[in-house]
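Lecture notes, unit on binding sites. The following record was shown on slide 14. It pairs a sequence with 6-hydroxymethylpterin-diphosphate.
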Amino acid sequence: MTYLRPIPIADAARPSDALVLAGGWCRFTHVEVLERGRAPVVLPAAEAPPSLLSPLLAPRPDFAGLTLDRPRLMGILNVTPDSFSDGGLFLKPEAAMMQARAMAAQADLLDVGGESTRPGATEVAVAEETARTAPVIAALRAAGIARAVSIDTRKAAVARAALKAGAGIVNDVTALQFDAEMAGVVAQAGVPVILMHSIATPATMQDAPQYDDVLLDVYDALAARVAEAEAAGIARARIAVDPGIGFGKTLAHNLALLARLSLFHSLGLPVLLGASRKRFIGTLTGEEEAARRMPGSLAVALAGVAQGVQMIRVHDVAETRAALTLWQAVTQAETKPA
Ligand code: HH2
């Protein structure tokens, strides 16, 4: 099998006939052709097979009412006692609402989660996870905070309650694999879904994960999950994909995925990146404390946006928004002399 990765150009002096990636802000003139067991080959995009090129060119439809012609920020609201970077901070409803209000000013959507999926985490009972998330979502909607709210869960019953409370997107870190009923809940509700790649469960996922070729293995696994979702009645126009940074991946795996993230546009779907404050950032910077990994998180977020990733999931919303604003200003500035 042949895989096509667009090579994004972020320079204002790019050739005028450069192609537009997925209707977004990135342009490309060349692609990298990837095949298992072979060294990558760089080709002019015009020489690539049209059937492989067309998913890269098709503009993405709106996702949960958001146009994807500019990068979108998803603010993380963990209503948990034990999330890896902010556990316990927003467990009380008043604290959760304050944090939501603070993020909503700069975020395009909010992701509410009631179960930590950090490496080594144990499962939370459905009743407890629902009690943490549904009332917060209802309060967010009642107060008119956030344009779009996603529920970050692997469990159908938790998703059902969240959707009833006013969530409009399901974000499943197991890509509908943990709970056999999840696909049906999403299909029936007709809501958008984020399919994230992971292997095993949080309890065991970091026990020596192995791949033949992490980039192509994750790509194939996501393609298979998308096909399953469609077979279950979920419209392709309502699916986004996420390579699942840190979920069953070593440092080398994470870096291999981040270096060639633009490959995932070949699936023809919006791509989401969640790298905020994760362990690999601490490993590379020497910052043990997750809450102090914001600078590294900003760098990874911008690297993702430079590869055309449409949605970025972050803890530090205001800081990421500021970084994005500046990145856009300097990469999309007019080249005409003043
Ligand atoms: N990462 C986490 C949780 N949900 N969802 C998507 N789509 N992508 C991600 O990368 C992702 C996710 C883990 O981060 P966090 O929610 O901050 O921590 P915890 O699981 O400990 O609550």
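Take-home: Residues 76, 78, 80, 83-85, 113, 116-118, 152, 171, 173, 194, 196, 242, 244-245, 272, 274, 313 surround 6-hydroxymethylpterin-diphosphate (CB under 6 Å).
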